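TOKENISE THE FOLD
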Amino acid sequence: MVSDPEALAATIAAFRTGSGPVAVDAERASGYRYGQRAYLIQLRRKGAGTALIDPIACPDLSALDEAIHDTEWVVHAATQDLPCLFDVGMHPGVLFDTELAGRLAGFPRVGLGPMTENVLGLSLAKEHSAVDWSTRPLPEPWLRYAALDVEVLVDLRDALETELDRQGKLDWAHQEFAALAAAPRPAPRVDPWRRTSQLHKVRRRRQLAVVRELWQTRDRIARERDVSPGRVLADTAIVNAALAMPLNAPALIAVQGFGPRINRRQLDQWLAAIERAREIPESALPTATAPHDGPPPPRAWAEKDPVAAARLTNARAAVAALAEQHHLPAENLITPDLVRRVSWEPPAQADATSIADALQALGARQWQTELAAPVLAEAFRAAGA
């Protein structure tokens, strides 16, 4: 473990003078701690060996980032790891994402274990994948497991590059990796409480207010205690309380997910949250659906705009067929959100060139527009657009 300034300085020097790509991975404590911070960061580079860095003891890794920033980073599932790497001052300049490469190459299972087995013929032990990485000291078997995750990443990268080149998809992958590396830090979610599991059961706005108040109370408690929100109160308990709208402590205790073993202080906090929801003026209650800046939900299209609904139906079928033809997931060919947006508000001249321009303005990569725009234009014509 690299857990002091001297060891970190030696690691930085070693990785600065190493050669070839740098394999990078991060371990979080999801399900145990609040948030998605990294509790271990693993790196490997030819000539530098493997380093396991404790980001709690070494919270500023900007000097390491400076040493390897312009070197290609090999990461598996970059969208999962990059946010916690940003927190410690690390951001790749050049990236190769082995999970995304697997998707583009058409592999049906793209987890690191299955990819390593299918591509390299090696089996990775994954028995420690869900452990509490905030544990200190970390047990030796866990460290060995973490080191193995970066041991094979560069070999996997090289094999996938060869396969993508064979399929004529390597340029597609480079465009995707460049977009990932250049992407800004994700913005905070609007109304994150709406991601509560089973929220679809809650129909009335007053009950939605209960969900919001309970979720926010739980989030505050979890943040203060530095524990996963689910360990404070389960999503199902929040939804059950919103549906029941209990008036007092005995009624709340009777709600599934609470029970008699809950301590009095927390019980009072949950009741206070429910009471706050009761007192919210009607005009300030949360809306039945989440606010959004895009088109309406597709289920409403047939009534609002039948022609747009026909465009979307045809577009989805055309994208699915094209994706199958190229042996990759439809959502990687072009994201469903972009298909919905351009189907709802197509350009005035719905030809392939205009649709390609519209898609690129919405963030699609060039390879995506070159493939998808012609079939979308044909789908729109068939819908009478």
Observations:
- Residues 44 and 50 are 4 Å apart (CA to CA).
- Strands lie at 19-28, 38-46, 49-53, 72-75, 94-97.
